[in-house]
């Protein structure tokens, strides 16, 4: 077979497999996933990938999104007949480095890695390169290494813009798209800022996108960060940890808002886990419990089911939906391309400089979800069922 025919066969097989693995959403149960996998694997009996194992290193199972990511990647790879070595590291850096070391020594042929600390994997990636193993950085860019071959993610700067725009919308300053509202309040409106984990490259992109959007309102005095805490290092939340976010919000309520939240209008939150920590703190001093009852506007990210329920209940204002099925599809497509000796298709070759090189990237777009978008974006697309939204799990 010449290369074109092989490529066409692979593309066809991939398309079939993709059609299969795009069906289930974050809430799809294991039974459905297994069925998808076996259907996909039988679509081209001529290609036997069963002696090829792909290592998939995910950060943590404490966040629902990474469970969905791991499952979607695994199903997509299995649908192509590959074996999958899926590992979660409990958000512990040494555990993740050890897992990756083992993947390399066991002879895994390719690595897909969502890192915990984006700068901690240099020696693992060197070992991978020495063994001829391609590395795909999954959602979080691995920094400080020339041995990152490809990056699949979302447009992370735009995620931050979308979060800040949603905050402005919730505060009545703009419409949903960020256009100045006709009868916007003059302010000043008090807000507080939260950022993600400072060792995660994405956290800076989210924060930069958000601050570029909020800064003009802060400069005009329409928005005031009353605590004065506006620099990334101060507002960052190590490991994106919900309990840590709750604690920081509680401290802010005590130090800056009279202990009961008086005058606080909104909170920029970069991730649903952080949002839930913030909301618990706000409700803990008697605010709300819903937005209608005076709870500040709180943003989010990842459309985690617990937060989708809070949005549906009028408690959390919004989240940013990153379709993990699509991200997994891109990771699987890139893996497949490398394993047949091709290059994956990139749509950005400029933005993601990891400190050593610009990593070719495939970036997907995101959607903002408010209460009235849940059905169209999350339920109709099969990501969740209405029953899951109602139950919050
Ligand atoms: C980031 C990711 C976000 C969120 C966060 C916490 O790297 O881009 O979507 O999941 O981690 O897990």
Structure description:
The protein has 393 residues and is of the alpha/beta class. It folds into 2 domains: 4-155 and 324-366, Response regulator (Rossmann fold, 3-Layer(aba) Sandwich), CATH 3.40.50; 156-321, 3-Layer(aba) Sandwich (Rossmann fold). It is built from 14 helices and 12 strands. The strands form 3 sheets. A 6-stranded parallel beta sheet has the order 2-1-3-4-5-11, with helices on both faces. A 4-stranded parallel beta sheet has the order 7-6-8-9, with helices on both faces. Strands 10-12 form a two-stranded antiparallel sheet. Strand 1 (53-58), helix 3 and strand 2 form a beta-alpha-beta unit. Helix 1 (3-21) runs antiparallel to helix 12 and helix 3 (64-79) packs parallel to helix 12 (324-339). The model is unreliable at 1-24 and 28-43 (pLDDT under 50). It binds beta-D-galactopyranose. The site of beta-D-galactopyranose has 12 residues, from loops.
Task: Give the gist of this structure.
Helix content is 44%, strand content 13%. It is an alpha/beta fold and 393 residues long.
List strands and helices in order, with pairings.
Elements: H1 3-21, H2 30-41, E1 53-58, H3 64-79, E2 83-88, H4 93-106, E3 110-113, H5 122-130, E4 134-138, E5 150-154, H6 156-170, E6 189-193, H7 201-220, E7 223-225, H8 232-235, H9 242-256, E8 264-268, H10 272-284, E9 297-298, H11 305-312, E10 319-321, H12 324-339, E11 361-364, E12 367-369, H13 374-379, H14 386-391
Parallel strand pairs: 1-2, 1-3, 3-4, 4-5, 5-11, 6-7, 6-8, 8-9
Antiparallel strand pairs: 10-12
Helix pairs in contact: 1-2, 1-3, 1-12, 2-3, 3-12, 6-7, 9-10
The structure holds beta-D-galactopyranose.
